[in-house]
Design goal:
The chain has 15 helices and 15 strands. By secondary structure, it is of the alpha+beta class. The chain folds into 3 domains: 2-284, no CATH class; 295-408, no CATH class; 417-474, Arc Repressor Mutant, subunit A, CATH 1.10.10. It has an 8-stranded mixed β-sheet with strand order 5-6-9-1-10-11-12-13. A 3-stranded antiparallel β-sheet has the order 4-3-14, with no helix packed on it. Strands 2-15 form a two-stranded antiparallel sheet. It binds adenosine-5'-diphosphate and magnesium ion.
């Protein structure tokens, strides 16, 4: 087997009110050409105005990735012609990206892995093209949408590492509210570079670039397919057939297909955009941004372990998705015991979420307030834990709150001591044989007797209470 080397160029559409250089809304529209300013169509006489929010968010991300940040914010023109690029150039950062030489440490299958970031830069998206039978539609909604492009060094060595890294980055984008990373809205795209080399070699192999892969699942398949394809050629002595080329991933076959060779590489004639004055990144600005970086996933995880005594495993499950973590924190804020809230969420609530790819925790009918209410009912011994599970199911079915369900089904635990006492007496008088067996050492008979009391109370007695009363009377 050979050693695989992977480098990623990960593009992600940012959240902002307006586009990165114009005042058109940065949003999602099912209709073409609704969110467009003249600048986004490259009209003569228009000038770009840099979106400060995007600049701040880009710097924030560069900080989180432990990058070096330049003195000035500048933008460069990447010149090429294509119908989706009306100006004839894309505004990007080529000479002075907002972050360079970063580093993060991630965990892959229980082992630490250091990932080196070559750079991260802020740029504008192009328009999008839809091709029909005899016409094509240019949709400028996407033209000028802010993009962050993160480029790694060739330092990843498996599909697992690449995906774990991307999940890590996606989580940061979500926790910082920089991007939703919504695949369905086409918010992420990656160029995946793959090469192989002999295990003991010092020199990197020939890389193949697979362009515009747009889901984590496809990225994994791309890497696995390329490693296999290149390894096969190499083991057959045909490594000269692995050439520097650009390929694309084909969803239907799960393979990659040749697009163009390195010989067709375009010279983009980069130069710094003269229409955008360079902008000094002051220490005050850096301080302000740093101060406002929210608690990230791993910090929340540590807090859950140290403050709430959750297990490492549970804490990880909760922070994996920001919405789930927010949901948990809301339960705790509303007074729920953290450990109980965690149990309900990781078992029951996530089971609902996982039933379909289409839904998130926000779509589940049961809200944090209801979880808090349910936990309180159990803590106050109004219902038993088992009844709690039944309440949960009924809440989903009937869209009612825990209190409403308990009322509707008359589930409250019997608090009437006299009544429970008389049920216990009844059970004792009807089960002389069982009592004798119990006294002769068959301790499980006690559970049987508790069961009988529960049955008579139609599940409403408190089993612990019933057990204590039985024990008292048997003596
Ligand atoms: P190019 O000049 O073709 O754009 P770069 O050196 O800028 O190539 O790298 C682009 C991307 O390709 C980076 O993400 C980098 O990590 C990755 N890369 C470079 N060399 C290799 C290689 N031999 N194997 C895998 N990935 C590589
Ligand atoms: Mg490149």
């Amino acid at each position: 087997m050979y050693k695989a080397v992977i480098g990623l160029e990960f593009h992600c559409e940012m959240k902002s009110h307006t586009k990165v250089f114009s005042n058109a809304i940065n949003g999602f529209s099912k209709l073409s050409n609704q969110l467009v300013a003249p600048l986004d169509m490259g009209f003569p006489g228009t000038l770009p105005v840099v979106n400060k929010t995007c600049v701040k968010k880009a710097i924030e991300m560069a900080m989180i990735l432990n990058c070096k940040i330049p003195e000035y914010m500048e933008f460069d023109r990447k010149n090429y012609f294509y119908p989706d690029l009306p100006k004839g150039y894309q505004l990007t950062q080529f000479f002075n990206p907002v972050g360079v030489d970063g580093k993060v440490v991630i965990e892959v299958n229980g082992k630490e892995k250091e990932v080196l970031i070559h750079d991260i830069h802020l740029e504008e998206d192009s328009a999008s093209l839809d091709h029909y039978y005899d016409t094509s539609n240019i949709d400028y909604n996407r033209s000028g949408v802010p993009l962050l492009e993160l480029v790694t060094e060739p330092c990843l060595n498996s599909a697992d590492e690449a995906i774990e890294f991307l999940e890590y980055i996606k989580r940061i984008y979500e926790y910082t509210d920089i991007s939703d990373c919504d695949t369905k809205k086409g918010q992420i795209r990656a160029d995946v570079n793959v090469s192989i080399m002999d295990n003991d070699s010092k020199e990197l192999g020939t890389k193949v670039e697979v362009k515009n892969v747009n889901s984590f699942d496809s990225i994994r398949k791309t890497i696995e397919y390329e490693i296999e394809r290149q390894s096969k050629l190499k083991s057959e002595g045909r490594y000269d057939e692995v050439v520097q080329e650009t390929r694309r991933f084909d969803d239907e076959t799960g393979t990659t297909i040749h697009m163009r060779s390195k010989a067709d590489a375009i010279d983009y004639k980069y130069f710094t955009d003269p229409n955008i004055p360079k902008y000094k990144i002051t220490n005050e600005l850096l301080e302000e941004i740093k101060k406002n970086i929210p608690m990230l996933a791993h910090e929340r995880k540590n807090k859950y372990i140290s403050e709430y005594n959750l297990s490492e495993y549970d804490a990880k499950v909760l922070v994996k998705n920001k919405k789930v973590s927010d949901y948990f924190e809301e339960c705790v804020r509303l007074g729920a015991d953290a450990k109980s809230a965690c149990n309900w969420i990781t078992t029951k609530v996530l089971a609902e979420v996982n039933k379909s790819d289409e839904i998130t925790i926000d779509d589940v009918f049961i809200r944090p307030s209801m979880i808090a209410e349910l936990i309180k009912l159990i803590a106050d011994k109004k219902i038993t834990n088992n009844q709690g599970k039944e309440v949960f199911t009924k809440m989903l079915e009937e869209h009612l709150t825990p209190v409403e369900i308990v009322k509707k089904y008359n589930m409250e635990i019997l608090e009437d001591d006299n009544l429970v006492n008389s049920l216990v007496d009844e059970v004792l008088s009807e089960n002389e044989k069982a009592i004798e067996d119990y006294k002769n050492g068959r301790t499980n008979m006690l559970d049987y007797l508790v069961g009988q009391v529960m049955k008579k109370s139609r599940g409403k007695a408190n089993p612990v209470d019933a057990k204590n009363k039985l024990l008292e009377k048997i003596k």
